[in-house]
Amino acid sequence: MKYILTLLALFPFMLNAQRTERYLEHGWKFSHTDRTENAAERCNDSKWQTVSVPHDWAIAGPFDKDIDKQTVAITQNGETEATEKTGRSGSLPWIGVGWYRTQFTVEKGCQRALLNFDGAMSEPQVYVNGQLAGEWKYGYSAFIVDITPYIHTDGKANTLAVRLQNVEESSRWYPGAGLYRPVKLITTNEQAISEWSINAVTETIADSQTSADVRFSVSCTKPSQATTVTFTTNGETCTVPFTGNNATHLFTLNRITPWTPETPKLYELTVQLMEGDRVVDEKTVKYGIRTVQVSEQNGFCLNGKTRKIKGVCLHHDLGMFGAAVHRSALLRQLRLLKEMGCDAIRTSHNMPSQWQMELCDSLGMMVMAESFDMWRYPKCKNGYARFYDQWWERDLTNLVEANRLHPSIVMWSIGNEIPEQGSTEGNAMTRRMQNLVHHLDPTRPVTAGMDRIDNAIATGYAQVLDIPGVNYRLPRYEAAYQRLRHGFLLGSETASTISSRGVYKFPVVPRKSHAYDDGQCSGYDVESCSWSNLPDEDWAWQDDNPWVIGEFVWTGFDYLGEPTPYDTYWPSRSSYFGIFDLAGLPKDRYWLYRSHWNPKAETIHLLPHWTWNGREGQTTPVYCYTNYPTAELFVNGVSQGRISKDNSIPYTAITAENDTLLNRYRLRWDNVVYQPGEVAVVVYDENGQERGRRTLHTADAPAAVTLALNDELTDVVNGEFSIMPLSLMPVDAGDMLFLTARIVDNDGYACPQADNLLRVSVSGGARFKGMCNGDPTSLEPFTEPSMHAFNGALVLAVEVTDPTKPATITVSSKGLRTAQYQLPTGQFVR
Questions:
Q1: Distance CA 89, CA 761 (A)
Q2: How far apart are CA 430 and CA 421, in angstroms?
Q3: Phi and psi for 421 in degrees, rounded to 5?
Q4: What three-state secondary structure class fits 765?
Q5: Is residue 488 a contact partner of residue 548, using CB atoms and an 8 Å limit?
Q6: Is 493 a catalytic residue?
């Protein structure tokens, strides 16, 4: 999609040169060849690869175990001896140098031109017409380059070249490579609204929640004594003078709706920069009206109302797209999470993209915006520690200034599991960083994720923070609460339960860091890591203790890299932590979280699947995840008993010897003997009234492929359809559609272990973009139109190229009936 924002000449006295903002998306050239002449205007790039930005140069692969192979001890995981880690950073070719080149023009007489990079991986050097115009170091940081001195203003084409460099052992996960976020060209008059300077601060909201005092502010590049600014919003307008470079005004706004995850109301603010009677610059932005407080008495409050945070951590990669950001992929992620009942994300462990924050604003998703994974002490040899001393202040400033207008952001994080938390040096560093954030934005609290909470309390590191964030360490919660000054704590990183979609291991017992020969983890949701735990344990602490103000689960989706517990196993190359797999398909754990986080929505989910050739007569436990308290299970019509959840069970660590706490949030029949046929569950409410049923069937041999669009989220394990409100569909060229391909038998029952090779073809007004099956051990490339199904399913993405033309997506497999999906001409539902 090409976004062009151009102000119209609405006033006859307006200057000729208008603000323009446009994304430089198409027509880029890319090469790995590293030569100084690549920056020159006349460099011959005709043989370079043609790409569009955002772009991740590494995602096409191939996977290779020797890429960034690290021999290290991961101290965060409690390791003391170094071992060879083959898939730690994703095993994709992200290391090396890459060059990008494109051309652009500006209006004749252009007075001011800027380039806004939302992120560039990494160490970008920006050249305009052969001259170095600017550079940055941190690949996750947004930054602006003033290119005014270097541009041609006579209508001649300008040449933009960007050099990027990624070095080995600079990341603990897959960072991606290249111009993976948008690049925007901005032109204005010399006198203009300063970028990132417009802000809206809600000072108070009336008890009635219908009026609020909101302060608006802006900065100007070169104000004179005649310069004023006009703010217009919600039917109100006011013109005020500048004091120095800044202007501000407090509005009392009536008939307002405060921003919440449930009511994500956004308002428009138009800012006009005036020089006498002339409009010299104008910009319209969106903002929300909301307040954030956190206290011992009330915990976390949004608009004065206490709520517990139900959040997940998200790495920045988007599975089959790698690090390249796509609005449609971000939209899909957020809608899936909201349907689960999730109301917050943590951008772990990096600064977010603007597109992601805009979607969080409009969909209603609170955000912990994180900054760094390390400071001065390196967690990997060539990580951000190389740049911290010279760059942290600039990076942190850009994070806050670029994002503080977003109502979705409710707190800032200045670090994750920082080694300095155990030193007095870390105390002083924390204070300096938090003070800077408070100076830039006094309205939001600051936190950090601490994995050594006892050390952090002893050094005073934890006491400095506005919100003490504790990563895991549930047995230390009570002691931390007693010793901390705050009267509350946040589970800044929780669970790290591990599982593979559709994989079940026997016997079913809780295990820590257990590895199997096939490189998979059990979908019974009873496996975690040496430092982590199961969801039930987090919920017991949160439900029983008001001073635990919420959680951010590690993680919402699987991500590339960090294949714990298979750090030394090849070909494992992506994580197992996700509630959704790398393809965005729900694991069983999705339904467990949904039953707890979204109790008003009916959830009835059975696991495992019921197609077990060779397990006849063997014990095969059956679990039901449901929002109802009671259920009865039947196997081929024979009752296996009616059981209820036991809410009286207090927190006790779940072990192989004692897993009683699982009965508080799950319904379990541990002694079921497998027989082919069907297994059914009937659920009952608190009054004993039947409220629903779910049935699983033993599948026959694979017979056909089916296709469903992304608003039809399928319970793949059960073969049941759960139609969810995900139908905010694209209508513009460049937008993505996601379809799930499933393998079924002749009766339409899901074949839960099918691994047939599927081939995709797309014709008409769309094109194939990528596919992913969610298997963390698969080495098949995401960018080729053929891939094996993993446990009966995979997801494919198509890009709309011409919304005026119909498109046909076909998925075939040898010996199976072919599936087709027809996309009608422009008939997408909004």
A1: 31
A2: 9
A3: -60, -20
A4: coil
A5: yes
A6: yes
pLDDT at 728 over 90: no
In DSSP terms, 50 is beta-bridged to: 29
- Give me 299's structure tokens: 């915990």
Q: 467 by DSSP, 3-state: which?
A: strand
For residues 545 and 410, give the distance between their C-alpha atoms in angstroms, rounded to a whole number: 22
Q: Which residue bears the tokens 């059975």?
A: 606
Sign of the alpha-carbon dihedral angle for 318, 320, 323, 324:
negative
The beta strand positions in 167-295, using DSSP E, are: 183-188, 199-205, 211-219, 227-233, 236-241, 246-254, 267-275, 278-287, 292-295
Residue 825: what pLDDT? Answer: 67
**Cα–Cα distance between 738 and 710 in angstroms, integer?**
5
Q: Is the pLDDT of residue 292 over 70?
A: yes
Count of other CB atoms within 10 angstroms of residue 116: 19
Instruction: List the catalytic residue out of 370, 493, 537, 799.
Output: 493
Cβ atoms of 640 and 678 closer than 8 Å: no
What pLDDT does residue 826 have?
53
Helix (H) or strand (E) holding 535, with range, is: helix 535-544
Q: How many CA atoms lie within 13 A of 21 on its CB side?
A: 15
72 SS3 class = strand
Tokens in use for 510? Answer: 């809780």
Nearest-angstrom CA–CA distance, 79 and 599: 39
Predicted confidence band of residue 17 (pLDDT cuts 50, 70, 90) = low
Q: Give yes or no for a contact between 625 and 523, defined as CB atoms under 8 angstroms apart.
A: no
Cα–Cα distance, 444 to 437 (Å, whole number) = 9
Q: If you average pLDDT over residues 647-670, what whole number do you get?
A: 97
pLDDT tens, residue by residue, 227-263 = 999 999 999 999 999 999 999 999 999 999 999 999 9
Q: The sheet that has 667-669: what strands, in order across it?
A: 604-607, 622-626, 667-669
Report whether 106 contacts 22 (CB < 8 A). Answer: no
- Angle of the 588-597 helix axis to the 535-544 helix axis, nearest 10: 10
| b/e sequence 787-814, b meaning 16+ C-beta within 10 Å | bebbbbbbbbbbbbeebeebbebebbbe
Q: Would you tell me how many other CB atoms lie within 10 Å of the CB of residue 339?
A: 18
Do 796 and 811 form a contact (C-beta atoms < 8 A)?
Answer: yes
- What is the reported pTM? 0.95
Per-residue model confidence (pLDDT) at position 5: 37
**Can you give 590-652 as a three-state secondary structure string?**
HHHHHHHHCCCCCCEEEECCCCCCCCCCCECCEEEEECCCEEEEEECCEEEEEEECCCCCCCC
β 786-788/807-812 pair status: unpaired
Interatomic CA distance for residues 495 and 537, integer angstroms: 8
Given the residues 417, 527, 562, 780, select the one marked as catalytic. 417
Tokens 């007095």, residue located: 424
CB atoms within 10 A of CB 422: 17
For the chain, what is the mean pLDDT?
A: 94
Q: 42-50 — which CB contacts under 8 Å span 24+ positions?
A: 43/101, 43/159, 43/161, 45/101, 48/99, 48/101
State the Cα–Cα distance between residues 650 and 80, nearest whole angstrom: 34
Q: Is 296 exposed, middle or buried (0-12, 13-18, 19+ CB in 10 A)?
A: exposed
Tokens of 429: 């560093």
Rounded to the nearest 10 degrees, what angle do helices 327-340 and 354-363 cross at?
40
- Type of residue numbered 298: N
Q: Quick count: other Cβ atoms within 10 Å of Cβ 27?
A: 13
C-alpha closest to that of 774 among 493, 496, 521, 495 = 521
